């Protein structure tokens, strides 16, 4: 892949953001974390149309308890079984928290009439694979096995996330399949972080120091090493790095939505993964957005293309949330 001319490729409304991201220090996990914290948005005030509630989900199989944050329409009837999204935040497997997704998830609840649980999964390197994946699995299995306890409709369950969170979602679908646990109605994968091997032209293109503001190969390498821990450089299972799964090993998975910008180091691995899902018979919807960088999906959107990204995500969720009989139910917005 040719060197990326950021000014020509990136949507104009994103350039100011790239100026801030260019100041990241990528020399260590500690400096990446400090840089990330410095550019993060302030906490979003609670929207009166949404009820937020933090809860601790009991651990399974000797694992620790997991904190989640619930988002539910404030006007939802008591006891209503709503469509459900389990959300896994991003952060390259080493960063991220519940607070940074409040605005995005409030808007999903308002637009779609669903309920969302955002998982406070454990981060590497303090907790390498499979810790974060096990946290996501604990919450998914608790909710899907006892939907009435959580006010969710068992026929309308979606698993999704962004970046590393989307990588966890893809890995969890593989694990659930292998365990014989039912798949979600949809795996919603927003620019998923899937491949530790640095094989694709798009991730290798972003290693020049002049590629200011883009998620960089140097940072990607450090974060994968932190997440994989003792597995780094050895045998890595697909549930840790789903891009390692062969097409014949992707059968039986939930329908997938993948969305990514074309100015993103992960674009090649995402396109390849979508192709292998489709080859395995998995219904797969892939969107590649010109001029959009890694992290471009947000609420509110900043540019025309990121606005389209958001609309496409909502449309995919709305389709997954339609009841089996096609009816409109209480709490559901068209």
Automatic annotation (TrEMBL):
Transmembrane segments: none annotated. The keyword Hydrolase applies. SUPFAM superfamilies: alpha/beta-Hydrolases. Residues 85-295 form the Alpha/beta hydrolase fold-3 domain. InterPro entries: AB_hydrolase_3, AB_hydrolase_fold, GDXG_lipolytic_enzyme. It holds the Pfam family Abhydrolase_3. This is Alpha/beta hydrolase. It comes from Parafrankia soli.
